[in-house]
Amino acid sequence: MRIEAQGIAVTMGGEAILQEVSLTCRPGEVLGLIGPNGAGKTTLLRSLAGLVAPDRGTVAYDGMSLGQIGRPRLARRLAYLAQEADAYWPIRGDRLVMLGRLPHRRPLAGESAADRAAVAAALAATETTALAGRRFDTLSGGERTRLLLARALAVEAEMLLADEPVAALDPYHQLHTMELLQAAALRGAGVVVVLHDLTLAARYCDRLVLLHEGRVLADGPAAAVLNDENLARAYHIEARHLSVDGLPVTLPWSRIGADYS
Q1: What pLDDT is attached to residue 261?
Q2: Helix, strand, or coil (residue 25)
Q3: 210-232 burial string, b = 16+ CB within 10 Å, else e?
Q4: Is residue 66 assigned to a domain?
Q5: pLDDT number for residue 87
Q6: Residue 151 included in any domain
Q7: What is the SS3 string spanning 69-92?
Q8: What are the residues facing 241 on neighbouring strands?
Q9: How many CB atoms lie within 10 A of CB 63?
Q10: What's the structural domain count of the chain?
Q11: Which of 22, 99, 152, 245 stands the most exposed, by the fewest C-beta atoms within 10 Å?
């Protein structure tokens, strides 16, 4: 699936959250959405998922509007992983992941062999099989996040939108999650992921879109987007740029104007 956003503008509570944002999300690519707090990353992701209607502009899915493609079909082709991992009901881990298969099931139909296989594969991929019988509301924040990723993977969608999927995770599971997103893209899916960790963004994303004050400040490969000028303007920081095993590493190093004496 290819998602094209043109001139997206969103206003909430009288405040302009997004202003004339245009971007393309392509199959087989990990696209990282980065930017400071309040830049509009989550709102943009929700707009791409069809969860926020823009005040101006359009979002097209393989050239079709949301009305043309329809929500049931979009739900089979696009998976959305929200930022929150709150638990309000005592659902078992495997039952939570099975919710990812609902778009593929006919009304009142039971679980198919394909549904059970997809859930088992998602649990195994996220290393959460041991959590399958545990109550979701008893798990740690990181465990919940990993199960929610498993639910998104169980959709077997053509496009995966993930909002800060590594925020609650330890370093091992941060790397594992980014590897899973990268593997999904290598299988041909499109991936759009909101990240605050610039090192992970530079290493695992094929392309970065840097948002600043609701607009696209830069769009391109990590080396071009994470340059000193863009980091100073968007984040007010200086960084160190390294290369390890041929891969770029960007380390936020100091706040511009900070007195460390």
Answers
A1: 56
A2: strand
A3: bbbbbebbbbeebeebbeeebbe
A4: yes
A5: 65
A6: no
A7: HCHHHHHHHEEEECCCCCCCCCCE
A8: 250
A9: 9
A10: 1
A11: 245
Give the list of residues 6+ apart from residue 2 with CB closer than 8 angstroms, or none: 24, 25, 26, 27, 61, 62, 63, 190
Task: State the pLDDT at residue 110.
Answer: 84
Cβ neighbours around 7 below 10 Å, total: 13
- What is the longest distance spanned by two Cα atoms in the chain? 67
User: What is the rounded distance in angstroms from the CA atom of residue 83 to the CA atom of residue 111?
Assistant: 28
d(CA 22, CA 47): 12
Taking 50 as the pLDDT cut, the residues of the chain under it are none
Contacts of 137 (CB under 8 A, 6+ apart): 87, 88, 89, 90, 91
Domain span holding position 249? 3-85+157-255
Spell out where the chain has E strands: 3-12, 15-25, 30-34, 56-61, 78-81, 159-163, 190-194, 207-212, 215-220, 237-244, 247-255
Q: For the residues of 144-165, what is the DSSP string, one character each?
A: HHHHHHHHHHHT--SEEEEEST
Enter the DSSP assignment of 103. G
At 49-71, the pLDDT tens digits run: 999 999 999 999 999 999 999 99
pLDDT at site 260 = 66
Report the C-alpha dihedral over residues 27, 230, 47, 97, rounded to 10 degrees.
Answer: 60
Instruction: Measure the CA–CA gap between 79 and 81, rounded to whole angstroms.
Output: 7
> What's the confidence (pLDDT) of residue 257?
80
- Neighbouring CB atoms inside 10 A of 90's CB total 9
| Residue 68 belongs to domain with CATH number | 3.40.50.300
Q: Which of 20, 26, 19 has its CA nearest to residue 4?
A: 26
